[in-house]
Automatic annotation (TrEMBL):
<dbReference type="GO" id="GO:0016787">
    <property type="term" value="F:hydrolase activity"/>
</dbReference>
<dbReference type="Pfam" id="PF00657">
    <property type="entry name" value="Lipase_GDSL"/>
</dbReference>
<protein>
    <submittedName>
        <fullName>GDSL-like Lipase/Acylhydrolase</fullName>
    </submittedName>
</protein>
<dbReference type="InterPro" id="IPR037459">
    <property type="entry name" value="RhgT-like"/>
</dbReference>
<feature type="region of interest" description="Disordered">
    <location>
        <begin position="31"/>
        <end position="61"/>
    </location>
</feature>
<keyword id="KW-0378">Hydrolase</keyword>
<dbReference type="InterPro" id="IPR036514">
    <property type="entry name" value="SGNH_hydro_sf"/>
</dbReference>
<dbReference type="InterPro" id="IPR001087">
    <property type="entry name" value="GDSL"/>
</dbReference>
């Protein structure tokens, strides 16, 4: 399949677009209606081996055919129909993903939902995964990664409707980072404000759940504070947010420990995702984004089988 995003963050094609996001409410994004649902498609293979400092995704670095036994089971064929003529005057979207290793490309010690999410985009829409392993809301900025994201925004707002996803928390909560919850919330709000000032749309993302379970078989809820503070930052700054934490936790609980661990980057890693996990949770992110802005649907390749399976699990979850 052909991916639709470029390594340098600057696409070579132009096309149609959709309307902007509505402001998020404080209600959970998990209220999607249940659907009649087909059986699960077959699984993909082991994670890709990438350099941990890679910041952009390309056709080679994202979903390499040799790393997937059957990518077609999860990555749908691109629709041939072009956007309608009345929409061609508008701008297509560009998605820049800012975050830690649970957003980043698959690599040693890292791997998130980012590449899977970007794989569903239809050209001329495109995106770049700027997730970085081990980063917090503080050092992502101090080490210059945030400046790179802002440069990409500035370079593309003329020809694209630019969206920036912002997901942190896994590292901010570590005691040695010395980042209070108040500072974490303030930092997220400031990042969102900076993107708005550049004429783009920020999307705050509550942190992806860890896939660890207690002795009773219940998925651990050890990012609840970060979830609440992300939502608070979104509410305070009138910024769109998606509740990935709640919905990913519901999904993981519903599928159970064995299946949840099949998405691990390595056997003992219940935080990072392999290539299959990136597609599954990337699809969840895409669905959550589209719940907030249905006008973007023309720019995402649907995978009804996978989406139906995900939402059937979420809607049947006990958490």
């Amino acid at each position: 399949m052909v991916l639709v995003y470029e390594e340098d963050g600057c696409p070579v094609r132009r096309g149609a677009s959709a309307s902007g996001f509505a402001i998020a409410s404080a209600s959970s994004a998990s209220s999607s209606a249940s659907q009649s649902l087909p059986r699960r498609t077959q699984h993909l293979a082991a994670p890709l081996e990438e350099e941990s400092n890679q910041t952009t995704t390309t056709e080679d670095s994202t979903m390499k055919p040799q790393a997937l036994f059957s990518a077609a089971a999860f990555l749908p064929a691109f629709a041939s129909a072009a956007p309608s003529a009345d929409k061609r005057a508008a701008k297509p979207p560009a998605f820049f993903l800012a975050g830690d290793s649970t957003t980043a490309v698959q690599s040693t010690g890292g791997g998130g939902w980012g590449n899977g999410f970007l794989s569903f985009l239809k050209k001329p829409a495109f995106g770049t995964n700027y997730g970085r392993n081990g980063r917090t809301t503080v050092d992502y900025v101090s080490q210059g990664h945030w400046a790179t994201v802002k440069d990409a925004v500035k370079s593309n707002t003329a020809n694209f409707d630019v969206y920036v996803t912002i997901q942190f928390g896994h590292n901010d909560q570590k005691p040695e980072k010395n980042i209070s919850l108040d500072q974490y919330q303030t930092n997220l709000g400031n990042l969102a404000k900076e993107i708005k000032a550049l004429g783009a749309t920020p999307i705050l993302v509550t942190p992806l759940t860890r896939r660890s379970f207690n002795s009773a078989g219940v998925v651990t809820n050890n990012l609840s504070n970060e979830r609440e503070r992300t939502i608070a930052a979104a509410t305070e700054t009138k910024t769109t947010y998606i509740d990935l934490n709640l919905n990913s936790r519901k999904y993981v609980q519903a599928i159970g420990e064995t299946k949840a661990h099949s998405y691990n980057l390595v056997e003992s890693d219940n935080t990072h995702l392999n290539a299959e996990g990136s597609v599954v949770f990337g699809r969840l992110v895409a669905d959550l984004v589209l719940q907030k802005n249905k006008g973007l649907e023309q720019w995402f390749t649907p995978n009804k089988t996978l989406s139906d399976e995900i939402w059937k699990a979420i809607n049947s979850s006990t958490v």
